[in-house]
Amino acid sequence: MAAVSAVLGGVLMLTACGGGDEDKAKGGGDTAKSQSDVDAAAAKDASKAKITIAPKDGSTNVGIDTTAVSVADGTLTAVELKTSEGAAVAGRIAGDGKSWKPDAPLKRSTKYALSATAKDAGGKEAHENSSFTTVSPENSFIGSFVPEDGQTVGVGMPVSITFNKPIKDRKAVQAAINVTSDSGQEVVGHWFSDQRLDFRPENYWKANSTVTMKMTLDGVQGAPGIQGVQNRTATFKIGRSQVSTVDAKSKKMTVTRDGQVIKTIPISAGAPANPTYNGQMVISEKFKETRMNGATVGFTDADGKGEYDIKDVPHAMRLSNSGTFLHGNYWGADSIFGNANTSHGCIGLNDVKGAGDPNQPAAWFYDNSLIGDVVTVVNSPDKTIKPDNGLNGWNMSWADWKAGSAA
Q1: Using one digit for the tens of pLDDT, what is the confidence trace for 238-275?
Q2: How are beta strands 242-247 and 374-378 bridged, if at all?
Q3: Chain center to CA of 105
Q4: What pTM was estimated for this model as a whole?
C-alpha cells in the first residue's frame, strides 16, 4: 500500500505546475503561490485595452465586406491582414485609433489571418488574432448599383440594383436594402426580375435633396445555399430639376429647369418607319463621342451588316437599353432639325464632327445635362417605352410600382 501511495505521489509531482519536493524540503509547500494566484497577478498587470475582431477566429463563409477591428479602453497601434499565401491586404486605422477596416472588399474563397495590437493609457500592449475563410463565389451573390456613391444626379435617377445571381427570397433581400431621402418622400422598391430591383418615390426626387442607400446583405440568404456578402452605404445628391420634353410632331425639345423654360431646341426624331418611343426616359450614360452600329440593335441589311455604322457620334446620351439615344448629328443637313424626322429612333440635335464646337445645340444640351435627368417624348406614333427598358420605371403607375415590391 505504501508503494502505491509513493507512485501516486510521484504522478502528482510530475503533473503539477508549482514547486516539487525541493520546495517542500525548504518548508515552502504551504506558502508557495498557487497557479490561480499567479494567473490573477498576471491579469492584474495586463493591458486594459480590449480588442474585438470580426469575424471571429475559425469563421467560414465570411462576407467579403465585413472584416473590421475595434478596441475599447485603448488605441490600435498595428493591424496586419494577410492571405494564407502571405499577400498583405491594405487597410487603415481610423484617426481616433479606435477601429480598422480594409481599404477594399476581400477576395472570395480565400483564407485570411489577422493580427491586431493595441495599447492602453499606460502603454501596456494587448494582442488579438483571428483566422477565417471568405465565402465562395458559387455560394454568394453581390449587387451592383447605380448611381455611384457621392454622385450628383438628376431628379429622375432611380436606385437600380442588379444582382449577379437570381434571387429567390425577394422579401429577405429587399428587407436588407433601405433607401431614404432627406426630403421625406416615401421610397419603394420594385422587382423587374429575379436579378433587378429598383427604388424610387411616387414622383421625381425633390431637387437638391440627399438620398441614402444602406445595403446590409452580408449573410442574407438570397436563394438556397446562396448568401449575400455586402454591407454598403451609398449617398448621392439630387441636383436641380431638369425635365426636357421632346415633341416628335412639332420636332422641338423644350428644356425646363426648376419650373422655368430655359431653352427650345429643334430636333429630328425617328422616321415614320422607325419612330421614337413615347414616354419618360432617364439619361443613364453620357459619351462625348461613341460608335453607333445598327447591327447591335437589329438594324441590318440583307448581308447582315448594320444599316449604319458611325464611329464618332458626338454628345451621345443613352435613354434606353435597346439603343435609344439623344445625340449630336453632324451628317444630316441643317434643314432637317425642326422640320423632318429622319433617324432610326434616336433624337438628333445639330452638331459638328469631332464634338468640338460648344455653341452647337447638342453640345449645349450635353454640357447642361446630368445623369438622371428626364427626357419625355410625346406625340410620336410609336408605343410607350417599357419601364424596364433602361432606367424608365416612371412609365409605371404608382400602384403598379408598389405591387412589384416584396416588402
Answers
A1: 999 999 999 999 999 999 999 999 999 999 999 999 99
A2: parallel
A3: 12
A4: 0.77
| 8 A C-beta contact, residue 233 and residue 201 | no
C-alpha cell read off for 61: 463563409
List Cα–Cα distances, 7 to 14, 18, 20, 125, 351, in angstroms.
11, 18, 15, 44, 103
CA atoms within 13 A on the CB side of 385: 29
**Mean pLDDT along residues 2-19:** 35
Strand order in the sheet with 252-257: 260-266, 252-257, 242-247, 374-378, 279-282
Inter-residue contact 213 to 179 (CB < 8 Å): yes
* Residue 127 contacts residue 51 (beta carbons within 8 Å): yes
Q: Is 190 a catalytic residue?
A: no
- Of 190, 315, 344, 346, which is the active-site residue? 346
The C-alpha atoms of residue 368 and residue 125 are separated, in whole angstroms, by: 57
Measured CA distances, 207 to 186, 204, 247, 258 (Å): 15, 9, 24, 8
Mention every residue, 6+ apart, whose C-beta is less than 8 A from residue 219: 63, 227, 228
Q: From CA 14, how far away is CA 268, in angstroms rounded?
A: 97
**Is the alpha carbon torsion for 403, 387, 395, 244 positive or negative?**
positive
* Residue 379 Cα distances to 179, 213, 272, 277, 382, angstroms: 35, 36, 12, 10, 9
* DSSP conformational letter for 259: T
Beta carbons of 202 and 398 less than 8 angstroms apart: yes
CA distance 92 to 374: 40
**What is the spatial distance between Cα 109 and Cα 139, in angstroms, rounded to a whole number?**
10
- What is the Cα–Cα distance from 278 to 377, expressed in whole angstroms? 5
CB contact at 8 A, 329 and 351:
yes
Among the options 190, 315, 327, 344, which is catalytic?
Answer: 327
Convert 360-390 to b/e letters by CB count within 10 Å (16 or more is b).
bbbbbbbeebbbbbbbbbeebebeebbbbbb
Known catalytic residue at 17: no
Cell numbers placing 254: 423644350
Residue 179's pLDDT is what? 98
